[in-house]
């Protein structure tokens, strides 16, 4: 049994996973070396400016000549703390995988090596890349063969905070897919950097050692929260039907260990700050299933970007709420000298490791935690208050529902009454390329679903029937019994996968393919 240490003053263990860069280093020649994490360095400059995203080489091609980056998938150990080391699949022997700093519009060659016994997929989350490099078998991306390799090339974009992760179906295998440690960061450097900060810190929130149970921790944090009539009734009827059929409530995911940057709270290097600094936090929730919160007592976040895209109306919040695969970029004015816990609001998860210490220069002592004032997370806060989204060419109606405990003890999910079939992999929605589409999504389940669309960004255009505009994302949390509209332009040819980013939900039906021709 692992010893769980929530707070400690001993930071003698040097943490290789703490990712921090100061602004001067960022633009210096030493940028990658100065990063706390081992960055993946281009072997040499093989990059050619290229406006095309076509792959340089397909599967089976010998990997000759240097790639700009190599990502190697293998089972390895992650030392969450001195008495807690887990074994899982990771990239380049580390968790999180190396931070790849790519230049917008500048073609990059990446070798993906797979040293495991299972064919893999590596998905470039949030980037506009061709279907054959995007990293989803459902879109037709070739697998990286077991004990094999694949070379891909693409043109990075859009600029901002992205990431890469495995895209395998896990089903009941809790070592596979997003339950593993296969996640790493991408920063696509914009041509122009707004740069109003002194110090940049990347944080990856991640749980390890999953198990299933029937216990669920309900979260009520989204606004607006008024349920849509009819959706709750539909959910209750589904529950009654399941009970009549003798089915039990579906499994929920739970975890033994919680970490930020692969370290349990108090077990890694603290984030070292100076009074008067403005720190830019880039936070990724790399969870397979959990919505996370994050607060820094005595400090306020100013949210400047969501999913790597600058928001039109930066706003302040005492808490960040981040669904699986979402990213939040927020600046914090460091003006409360002390030693603090930057951590999750859930006491149990924070005590099991979901936090990191923030230490002001010259300050010592026990890291302090205080619960922040209640705050409801509302994407509309960051939208453009004066803008109205233009009407789309077409509205696609979608209702999400659950069949309780219907699949190997897990809930099955449906989109318009259809659970995605991995056997058929047929597109559900046919789009005209260049058309502007609005997805009207209705959630007839009691879960919050982080909805993701591959190879595109979308604009949130209404929540709970209330219009908004200007917030551009690639994942959005849809509240229980709630509705939301998101608009996007079908500017990517071929297949694009749409799914809930909770591994168990997508594995048991919550996926659909768009086909743009
Ligand atoms: Cu879901």
Q: If you had to describe this structure to a student in words, what would you say it looks like?
A:
This protein is mainly β and 517 residues long. It has 3 domains: 19-193, Cupredoxins -  blue copper proteins (Immunoglobulin-like), CATH 2.60.40.420; 255-373, Cupredoxins -  blue copper proteins (Immunoglobulin-like), CATH 2.60.40; 394-516, Cupredoxins -  blue copper proteins (Immunoglobulin-like, Sandwich). The chain is built from 6 helices and 31 strands. Strand 2 (69-81) and strand 3 form a beta hairpin. The longest helix has 14 residues, at 231-244. Residues 1-61 have low confidence and may be disordered. The structure holds copper (II) ion. Copper (II) ion is lined by residues 447, 449, 500, 502, 505, 510.
Give the topology, please:
Blueprint: E1 19-22, H1 23-27, H2 31-34, E2 69-81, E3 84-91, E4 97-103, E5 108-114, E6 122-125, H3 131-134, E7 148-154, E8 160-166, E9 183-189, E10 199-213, H4 231-244, E11 252-260, E12 271-273, E13 278-285, E14 292-294, E15 301-306, E16 309-317, E17 320-322, E18 327-333, E19 339-343, H5 347-351, E20 355-360, E21 394-407, E22 410-415, E23 429-431, E24 436-443, E25 449-453, E26 458-463, E27 466-473, E28 475-478, E29 483-489, E30 494-500, H6 503-507, E31 511-516
Parallel strand pairs: 2-5, 4-9, 10-13, 12-20, 21-24, 23-31
Antiparallel strand pairs: 1-10, 2-3, 5-7, 6-8, 8-9, 10-11, 13-18, 14-17, 15-16, 15-18, 19-20, 21-22, 24-29, 25-28, 25-30, 26-27, 26-29, 30-31
The structure holds copper (II) ion.
């Amino acid at each position: 049994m692992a010893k769980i240490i929530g707070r400690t003053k001993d930071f003698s263990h040097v943490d290789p996973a703490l990712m921090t860069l100061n602004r001067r280093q960022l633009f210096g020649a030493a940028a990658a070396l100065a990063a706390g994490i081992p960055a993946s360095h281009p072997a040499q400059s093989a990059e050619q400016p290229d406006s095309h995203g076509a792959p340089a080489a397909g599967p089976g091609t010998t990997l000759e000549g240097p790639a700009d980056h190599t990502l190697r998938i293998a089972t390895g150990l992650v030392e969450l703390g001195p008495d807690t080391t887990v074994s899982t699949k990771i990239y380049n022997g580390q968790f999180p995988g190396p931070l790849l700093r790519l230049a917008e519009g500048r073609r990059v060659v990446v070798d993906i090596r797979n040293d495991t016994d299972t064919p893999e997929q590596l998905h470039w989350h949030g980037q506009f890349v061709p279907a054959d490099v995007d990293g989803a078998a459902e879109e037709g991306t070739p697998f990286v063969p077991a004990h094999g390799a694949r070379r891909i090339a693409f043109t990075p974009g859009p600029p901002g905070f992205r990431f890469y992760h495995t895209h395998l179906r896990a089903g009941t295998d809790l070592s596979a897919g997003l339950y593993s440690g296969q996640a790493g960061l991408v920063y696509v450097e914009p041509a122009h950097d707004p740069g109003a900060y002194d110090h940049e810190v990347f944080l990856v929130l991640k749980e390890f050692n999953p198990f299933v149970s029937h216990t669920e921790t309900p979260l009520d944090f989204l606004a607006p929260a008024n349920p849509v009539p009819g959706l709750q009734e539909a959910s209750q009827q589904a529950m009654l039907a399941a009970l009549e059929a003798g089915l039990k409530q579906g499994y929920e995911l739970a975890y033994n260990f919680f970490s930020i940057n692969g370290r349990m709270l108090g077990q890694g290097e603290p984030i070292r700050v100076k009074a008067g600094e403005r720190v830019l936090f880039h936070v990724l929730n790399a969870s397979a299933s959990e919505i996370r919160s994050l607060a820094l007592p005595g400090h306020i976040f100013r949210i400047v970007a969501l999913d790597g895209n600058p928001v039109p109306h930066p706003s302040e919040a005492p808490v960040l709420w981040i669904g699986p695969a979402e990213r939040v970029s927020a600046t914090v004015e460091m003006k409360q000298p002390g030693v603090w816990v930057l951590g999750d609001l859930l006491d149990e998860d924070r005590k099991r490791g979901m936090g990191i210490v923030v230490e002001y220069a010259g300050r010592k002592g026990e890291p302090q935690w205080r619960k922040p004032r209640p705050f409801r997370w509302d994407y509309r806060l960051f939208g453009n208050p004066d803008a109205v989204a233009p009407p789309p060419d077409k509205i696609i109606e979608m209702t999400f529902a659950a069949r309780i405990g219907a699949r190997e003890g897990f809930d099955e999910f449906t989109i318009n009454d259809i659970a995605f079939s991995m056997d058929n992999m047929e597109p559900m929605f046919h789009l005209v390329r260049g058309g502007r589409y609005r997805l009207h999504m209705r959630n007839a389940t009691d879960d919050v679903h982080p909805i993701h669309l591959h190879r595109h960004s979308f604009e949130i255009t209404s929540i709970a029937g209330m219009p908004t505009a200007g917030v551009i994302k690639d994942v959005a949390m849809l509240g229980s019994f709630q509705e939301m509209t998101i608009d996007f332009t079908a500017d990517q040819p071929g297949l694009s996968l749409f799914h809930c980013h909770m591994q168990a939900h997508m594995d048991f039906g919550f996926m659909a393919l768009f086909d743009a021709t």
